[in-house]
């Protein structure tokens, strides 16, 4: 078996050739296409001549579990089940019916495994859960670094600015531009048939994979908080449909992305977050959409320049800059900082200036509950919060304003950080992601520089106001849609 740049061994147990199967514990790349982890698991199954089992599980007790997040994932499970059904791979979707009912399931699946492959996900409880599981199960466990175009492990340093990360990507294109994961690894796949699941299926019954039943079943779960599901979102099919629609109608107008009314952004962040679509598939679709594009058009300049890098239309280059530079500078940050969600992880200049202004008088002061209920004095802020609560998403420009005003109207920068993380992780379909913490960190100065004039509360951290947002954006329709109703 060839060493693979994206694979590292988490638990150094030897491969067990007498095992009955290879196990892929699917936690972050919840899809069947363009997935390095699935490719790796298939490679092992081929090499060892064993069946492959894929375990995709969903816990009830994770800190932000809700009908909203569960429904998104469960729709994905139904899509995955249909795809695996037509392949020799065994697929086991599991949704915990009761708190901790899934305890022991992974160990049971791994007991007779030759090797376990899983996804490398650098944040939230998954980061620690994976490491703890590796130490417990006793089988060899491999982590596959596949959530980005750039392997998180490739840059040997953490970048303070997007510009520096972009320059690194330009300089090291050979490291990350290839080889891509297989577009459709299930096509004409020949492996030993999976047979019966290697676990006690009465103790851990598989989740239903018929959509209606699967979603109905969620009604029986006792979630800590009532946050309703969003209709018709979730799953690889929906992700791919959204990608096609975006490439056909939004991409060419992407320069208007700051206008909520233009509706030209991809809406893919939640699908990317849950791994229901991979960044490689998105990149491929964008490259294919530029007439006569070929890799020879990529600029050889490595100056961190945003325009003229890909040799594509400005709209496409703008989009790829979000998908690659901004999304993955966030991956780079959390990879190097286990304290990514803490005030201490902010740049020194930002901590200093925020501390110096921590006791400034706030023009307004709201609690988490008031923010959550969209009960501030500001109709734009309230509309953004209502968008988050009712749709599970928020337009990027308003998300920046939303964060800046939480900083402005909270008792301290630390309190603001906590409030942003709680609301974003609780309601956003794309929350609990490296980019949750980099977006929220940006509000407090991360990936940014000091600005003047120095202001109350913000100090030298970049300021934003609802008044200038109202002047810049066409907000009438937005305010009507997300008004107090
Ligand atoms: C306070 C705050 C919190 C945020 N929380 C999250 C979060 O929880 N999860 C999340 O994925 N993003 C977060 N972002 C970044 C950004 O708001 C979203 O990625 C973007 O709005 C998603 O919409 P889209 O998929 O239509 O993006 P598009 O404009 O279509 O962009 C394509 C993809 O590029 C990436 N991307 C776009 N903008 C950014 C950005 N500014 N930073 C990093 N990546 C970006 C996303 O993966 C996105 O899906 C946050 C930003 C702020 C200011």
From TrEMBL:
| Tree of life domain | Bacteria
- MF GO annotations: deoxyribodipyrimidine photo-lyase activity; DNA binding
InterPro entries to which the protein is assigned, alphabetical: Crypto/Photolyase_FAD-like_sf, Crypto/Photolyase_N_sf, DNA_photolyase_N, Photolyase_Class-2, Rossmann-like_a/b/a_fold
Q: Which cofactor does it need?
A: FAD; (6R)-5,10-methylene-5,6,7,8-tetrahydrofolate
One GO BP annotation here?
photoreactive repair
Q: Locate the transmembrane regions by residue number.
A: none
Which EC number applies?
Answer: 4.1.99.3
Domain Photolyase/cryptochrome alpha/beta stretches: 20-152
Q: Which UniProt keywords apply?
A: DNA damage, DNA repair, DNA-binding, FAD, Flavoprotein, Lyase
Q: From the UniProt record, list the reaction(s) this protein catalyses.
A: cyclobutadipyrimidine (in DNA) = 2 pyrimidine residues (in DNA)
Q: Which Gene3D superfamilies match?
A: 1.25.40.80, DNA Cyclobutane Dipyrimidine Photolyase, subunit A, domain 3, HUPs
Family per record? Belongs to the DNA photolyase class-2 family.
Under the heading PANTHER family, the entry gives:
DEOXYRIBODIPYRIMIDINE PHOTO-LYASE (PTHR10211:SF0), DEOXYRIBODIPYRIMIDINE PHOTOLYASE (PTHR10211)
Specify the protein name. Deoxyribodipyrimidine photo-lyase
